[in-house]
Design a protein that fits this description.
three-stranded mixed beta sheet, 63% helix, 320 residues, elongated, 9 helices
């Protein structure tokens, strides 16, 4: 088994563990929220439901990413992971608005809450969240998919702490408006987390340059390689959270023409070591576009000419 397949198996195992814990938390909090009449607990349950959704999507994305490339999908299914993060982010955003709306109703008409059972259920929820978070933490720094799931679980743990504090205060004071206040706090936590996940996944889906990377810096780094005259038509993009791709035209100095394969190999090694770019497509010596810009303007392919336009356009066909 390759190191990468082993890593994916390890991540998948941790996701399954987190899914079981999160499912138990969801059942406890939905039942508990209805029984204790606590909107804060139900808000937390909504958050937990989205955690579960996130974890299931993330596990599905790992399965899809493991599928082989094909003639119709030369990049495989890696983008599925980014789509999972996007769908996940949008769904949480909607839930956040729902919680705010419900909390507003509670502000206007506070309702009595069974604060002691609410406190106990939230405590159980917190314990489950922390166990899930510890399972995911190891891989959360280098994988957007795991990171988005980890953020969910951590946000959920924070929400549980809020519910616990609310339960204690309400038990001693009977100040039931606090239930709505805690719910709004949870709503904001969800809202912020979802916005970050949406922003990051949209950036990747729009083929944005990876964050914390500069096209100018990358082109200057390539120019430092011996034998390179200039770089143009440079594109850098993200396929999924741990696969970065680059394509460029590299103008090689005349003295190094015979050795251009070695020059390109050195460029690939530099890109991999310094920027973790593992998928590179380099075109050597493009004399026609040496003066071209670093970033090339994209053009649509020529549109088909309809027959009734033919007379008007045909005189241009022979010009090159």
């Amino acid at each position: 088994m390759s190191a990468e397949a082993h890593l994916d198996k390890s991540i998948a195992g941790r996701f399954k563990y987190a899914i079981v814990l999160t499912s138990l938390t969801l059942v406890a909090e939905v039942a508990g929220g209805i029984w204790t009449n606590s909107l804060a607990l139900l808000s937390d349950a909504a958050h937990v439901f989205l955690d579960l959704f996130a974890l299931l999507l993330s596990l599905g994305a790992i399965r899809l990413a493991a599928m082989p490339v094909s003639e119709t999908r030369t990049f495989g299914w890696h983008r599925a992971e980014v789509f999972a993060s996007f769908i996940n982010g949008v769904s949480i955003l909607l839930i956040a608005f729902g919680i705010m709306y419900e909390a507003w109703g509670r502000f206007l008409h506070p309702e009595e809450v069974k604060s002691l059972p609410m406190f106990i259920i939230a405590l159980v929820g917190l314990a489950m969240n922390l166990l899930s978070a510890s399972a995911l933490h190891q891989h959360s720094h280098d994988d957007l998919n795991v990171h988005s799931a980890f953020l969910h679980v951590i946000g959920d743990a924070a929400a549980s702490v809020g519910v616990i504090a609310g339960g204690v205060i309400m038990y001693f004071t009977g100040w039931y408006v606090l239930d709505a206040i805690v719910s709004v706090g949870i709503g904001f936590v969800i809202f912020w987390g979802s916005w970050r996940v949406i922003r990051e996944s949209v950036h990747i889906l729009l083929e944005g340059v990876p964050r914390n990377m500069s096209i100018t810096q990358v082109s200057e780094a390539i120019r430092t390689i011996e034998g390179v005259n200039s770089v143009h038509h440079l594109n850098v993009w993200t396929i999924c959270s741990h696969i970065l791709a680059l394509s460029a035209h590299v103008d090689i100095l005349p003295d190094y023409k015979d050795d251009q394969t070695a020059v390109l190999r050195r460029i690939e090694e530099l890109l991999f070591e310094r920027y973790h770019i593992s998928h590179t497509t380099l075109q050597a010596e493009c004399t026609k576009c040496i003066e071209g810009p670093i970033i090339k303007e994209m053009r649509h392919r020529p549109r088909a000419v309809h027959s009734h336009d033919h007379g008007a356009c045909s005189h241009g066909h022979h010009h090159h």
